[in-house]
Design a protein that fits this description.
The chain has a two-stranded antiparallel sheet. The longest helix has 17 residues, at 77-93. With 101 residues, it is mainly alpha-helical. It is built from 5 helices and 2 strands; from the N terminus they run E-E-H-H-H-H-H.
């Protein structure tokens, strides 16, 4: 089952953009404040929420609802990859690579 996590982008069994560390980082709280944020995470979220990818996101969410709520025996893999392709195309055309020199 593919799960959507709006805070970090697409999160799935495939390990895409996921951080599966379940360890407690109580002592590392101060270090987390100093860590740099990866700009691609924000750019990916912006692209998935953009008008260009809205149809792919809707199709993916509709498939997810069919599978979870109605118990449909289908895989949402085609919708997932269509959404990823749209997201990656948007990221590649964005301003992210102008920032990273």
């Amino acid at each position: 089952l593919i799960v959507w996590d709006s805070s970090s982008g697409i999160n799935a069994e495939y390990g895409e953009d996921g951080d599966d560390d379940d360890e407690d980082d109580e002592g590392d709280e101060e270090e987390d404040e100093d860590e740099l944020k990866d700009p691609i995470v924000a750019e990916r979220k912006k692209c998935v929420d953009s008008f260009d990818c809205m149809g792919f996101k809707h199709a993916f969410n509709a498939c997810q609802n069919r599978v979870t709520n109605e118990g449909a025996k289908e895989s949402c893999t085609p919708e997932y990859f269509d959404l990823l392709e749209c997201r990656d195309k948007c990221v590649s055309q964005g301003h992210l690579f102008h920032i990273l020199k």
